[in-house]
Design a protein that fits this description.
de novo design (two linked rop proteins), mainly alpha, single chain, 115 residues
Amino acid sequence: MDHKDLDVWKKSMDLVELVYQLSSKFPSDERFGLTSQMRRAAISIPSNIAEGSARKGNKEFIQFLMISLGSLSELETQYLLAIRLKMADKNDLFENKMTEVKKLLLGFRNYLMKP
């Protein structure tokens, strides 16, 4: 299965783009702080989906999907911190995309877990 054909990979790539747009407005002194953390967490999501899809079986793929879910949770926490620190405003598009990716990750994981 090619990861580039997976909706969950495509939507997570869209999320990475949104993270770059959002974080580009952060103060320049955050370039190596929250900006970097958010970008790395976001990039980790589609990267782990891609790596998992290249593995032998569903069990390994599921593990990489779980890592992607963890990265998504990190990203959500960092986004909420950016709002608390007044570096970003609440962004419905961003929040909706995070929710969409989470649902797709969970749904795909559940699909792969079926006997």
